[in-house]
Here is the input.
Amino acid sequence: MARNGDGASLTHLPSSMSKCRVFDGRQQGESDAMASYDYDLFVIGAGSGGTRASRIAAGYGARVGVAEERYLGGTCVNVGCVPKKLLVYASHFSEDFEDARGFGWTVGPRSFDWNTLIANKDQEIDRLNGIYRRLIEGAGARIYDERATLVDEHTLQVGDERVSAETILVAVGGWPDLPAIPGIEHAIDSNDVFYLKEFPRRMAIVGGGYTAVEFAGVFAGLGAEVTQLYRGPLFLRGFDDDIRAELASEMRKKDIDLRFDASVEAIEQMEDGSYQITATVGGEATTIQADCVLYATGRRPNTASLGLDKAGVNVTDGGVIPVDEYSRTNVPHIYAIGDVTDRINLTPVAIREGHLFAETVFNNNPQVPDHRDVPTAVFSQPSIGACGMTEAEARAELDAIDIYRSAFRPMKHTLSGRDERSVMKLIVDRKTDRVVGCHILGPDAGEIMQGIGIAIKCGATKAQFDATIGIHPTSAEEIVTMREPVPDTPSEEAAD
Ligand code: NDP
Here is the structure.
């Protein structure tokens, strides 16, 4: 079977793809159809996915217009991955200073200035915005710093201008979604948090996904008292249960107050300007005082009033645009990629979807993005890296599995004295010997997981992991030195 670079099958193209246009830049403007539109491609949204699609399509000779109403680079560059990682770095210094003592260092008085961090972060984001502009324009596409809405299936209103396009790509991403509880107006969302004017002494964070967990670590590391409230029994739903439980235990060691089974009922502003949260935690009514309340309860596709109805594009009640495997909506020349399609809402996935859309439509090279075994990292403290099936998923889907698990104190902490443990876990399909999942909790888990993601993507077996020589002394060598599976009893959480 023919496979593209992502392992996706090329042999079963839907019949509609046979109509896929061979795009030849040399013939630009020569055909009647092309001549009748202002653009061959109009992209709504210059986030990670939209930018990649624009550049690649323009590189194949397409006449491309891109509208971005807010900031080039979208969520990831402006209020997501990039600034978040910078804040994670900043927050880790508090432990680094403490850990240095065991290595003979005397660290003098230290203080932290939030405004300096935010100003430096803003400067870096400005630099990246400029790079995005140059990337798009350098490829020959035109940027409109305006909101674009659909007027009909080939026409867009872009600021004061009307433009037409043969193909349209919707890549507008998502926006923080907060529940309508009394006092929600007092909460900040996961965009606002990057522009907080003052560093809060007491931070309450509601939610249990990537963002909530990451910011709990950031604010605790920077010196705030953090309370995290999550509605379920254990945060990071969808990750390996074992790793979730270990992370909770490590975060509690850092004095982060984790409240699970917590339902927030109201937020009230007090006379001194602080906030009081009224909640039920584990069935008991309680109140929590905070100087700032961050809601990180997910994001909703940014599709409201985009005119999708005027173009006949189907949208679910939740605002998601359903697409086929080629990212095509129900309207054959309108495509959608990234968070707006709610497949796997990660930047590199949106970039891949955007790239393969452009390959398919503008290079006569139909390719589907492969959403299997996508490696991911949570920049919690300690961090998580994950790829493939969780233990619970493997137990549900496979006849028999073996679990290899190693829990240890990272070498650095033998001298730092820090009580922090790492966990590494491999899940192996006993029938095929393939490693079907890997889960890591510990420093640099994301960095380690990228390479393991390649092995899993290649279908590597446990025997091949075993045949790989470890790099000594590293934490990552545990991945190739775990010899004995753990006794075959599902963990309590996995069995639930
Ligand atoms: P997520 O959708 O990942 O998590 C939302 C969290 O809020 C879940 O714990 C959810 O609970 C909870 N929640 C949802 N609705 C409510 C509600 N009404 N009341 C209380 N709790 C609620 O959103 P995030 O904001 O964390 O992340 C947004 C997206 O960005 C994600 O898709 C993620 O993939 C991506 N991201 C990726 C990062 C990375 O790669 N490191 C970092 C940050 C974000 P429940 O689980 O019970 O549904």
Observations:
- The mean pLDDT is 93.
- The longest strand covers residues 161-170.
